[in-house]
Amino acid sequence: MLDIEGTTTPVDFVYRVLFPYARAHLREFVARHFRDPEVRDDIARLQAEHRADSGGGLGPPPWRADTAEDEIASAIAYVQWLMDADRKSTGLKSLQGKIWETGYRTGELRGQVYPDVPPALLRWSSQGRDICIFSSGSIQAQRLLFSCSNAGDLTGCIRAYFDTTSGPKTEAPSYRRIAATLERAPQEMLFVSDVVAELDAARQSGMQTALCVRSVEKPVDAGGHAVIHSFDDFF
């Protein structure tokens, strides 16, 4: 099971390409698709998160819903506030995925993966290993990145995708849920990520773990996890 950002995909692609694209097209997308049922679902999630943030004293921008225009403006302001804070919000990630879909379909966006990733996915598939993804980005965004990647369509190698609807990546029950969905014991699974806190949670669930450190010059406290610098380092 693979993380994306910093593991299969350069962090710069997420922060310098995907996030700015979503921010630049946010207002137009929400205004145009405000009545779409799936976008309405995202806005409902965002409004629920907004209530929780307000109740928790986090001070989000006000949310007004007297008119459609008020609700659109409120949703946009709150999404921008979440993006500024780099929040792993399920509603935000779902909405971002829908915005990115337009970019991938028009060719403005192309997913980036490290050079060692495509041959590794093919190698592991040929070995009969199941491959899945667990990322804070929405399942839709994950599929788009791998289907429209700079190495072509890689989705044929990937069995399943999981996002924060399975739970936070820093909590062990999330990993147990994923293992149960795949009908695997956690001990049969290896989770690869560049974030030690995520690996700690996976290890607590019983999974095997490996810390992906793409920069060999970067000193790192691996927290007792195995360390890899490339997908060529294992299997």
Structure description:
The protein is mainly alpha-helical. The chain folds into 2 domains: 14-106, Transcription Termination Factor Rho, Rna-binding Domain, Chain A, Domain 1 (Orthogonal Bundle), CATH 1.10.720; 110-233, Rossmann fold, CATH 3.40.50. Helices cover 49% and strands 8% of the residues. It contains 8 helices and 5 strands. The chain has a 3-stranded parallel sheet, with helices on one face. Strands 1-2 form a two-stranded parallel ribbon. Helix 6 links the parallel strand 1 (132-134) and strand 2 (160-162). Helix 1 crosses helix 4, helix 4 (90-106) runs parallel beside helix 6 (139-147) and helix 7 (172-181) crosses helix 8 (196-205). The longest helix has 23 residues, at 11-33. The model has no long low-confidence stretch (mean pLDDT 95).
Please write out the topology:
Elements lengths: L10 H23 L3 H19 L12 H17 L5 H17 L10 H10 L5 E3 L4 H9 L12 E3 L9 H10 L8 E4 L2 H10 L2 E5 L13 E3 L7
Parallel strand pairs: 1-2, 3-4, 4-5
